[in-house]
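A brief tutorial aside. Many learners find it easier to grasp structure tokens once they have seen a single protein encoded end to end. The record that follows does exactly this for Acriflavin resistance protein A. Read the sequence first, then the structure, and try to relate runs of similar tokens to stretches of the chain.
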Amino acid sequence: MLSSRTLNYGLSLLFPLILLGCGAQTEAPKEQSKSLHVDTLTISTSNLRLSNELPARISALKKAEVRPQVTGILQTRLFKEGDFVNTDEVLYQIDPTIYQATVNSAKAQLTKAFAAESTTQKSVNRYRELLKKKLASQELYDEAESAYLQAKAEVTIKKADLDYANIELSYTKIKAPISGIIGISLASEGSLLTVGQSSYLTTIIQSDHVYVDMQQSSLSLYKLKQAFSSQTNTQASIPVLLTLEDGTEYSEKGYLEFSEAQVNASTGSVTLRAIIPNPQQTLLPGMFVRATISAPEARDYIVLPQSTIIRSQSGEPYVFIVDEKNISEKVFLELGNEVGNGWIIEKGLKSGDKVITSNLNNIKNKQVVVIDSDIDVDQLSALNEKL
């Protein structure tokens, strides 16, 4: 029979062996935990025609503020607000009484000047004949000729006075300077209108075509110009499509007309202006729309879902890819345009790379991974369409 001392001694030798065995068993899962299970997306190119959507505002192609050019009482308004008016169509009539009287006076003064010219001309002719016969002195002839020249000049002055009076009389009929849609009348019959008044009577807007004003970053504008410079036809216009505030696509197509020559120092943006047809008067000045500028042609791009892209503390984008040995690798990216819920990758990835899409909070660089599932870009697109 074993003594208690012998039993205690045997247990003391066995206990470390048990602990050692347990330690060996716990180390095996530890080795396995180094491998992280992930899902991946195999990169391939997509053929896309890129577009850039910008907030835009409609402005009139031409806008005229109608003001009086003479002072007087407004007698009549001759148009209906909101109608289309043609160039030189009479819009208002100012009381012409005073200006007609000035015209009549100028005509009378011109008639008087013509009479004086005729009289002095006859006097010059008479003295010329007498001078030839030496029956009059040179002095008398010179005085007669001077009087004639003065009378002739007076005729020119009176003609100018009559022309000016007629011009002022014509200004009593306030006419449309351009063709277009006329706005609200801000003056009523009986109002006193004055030359140089600050307030206008009405406005006329030419809106069969309108301007679309957009703000674009200087860098994006440079990329846009680079894209179109590769075309064979360097004079080709850049198309612009509009989406209205309710999401409706506008049927007419416009073209980029102008880009500002300098960058706004506070915003870093450049103003772009397109011109677009407006036959149904759908687009009104001041309206906000979305303008889409499309690239000249479709090209192959690598597009990566935004959810797979990680940002460093400094904001640099990067992803983890899996190499041939199933080891993770941290790759920094250069992003291009945003396309749907993804980014175009300018630099950093190539077709065939496997980008890790799961366990992104736990993944580390140079870590062994186990790929549970792998899909390509086409399968991802099909899955998104089903969802």
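Self-check: Residues 186 and 201 are 5 Å apart (CA to CA). If you spotted this yourself, you are ready for the next section.
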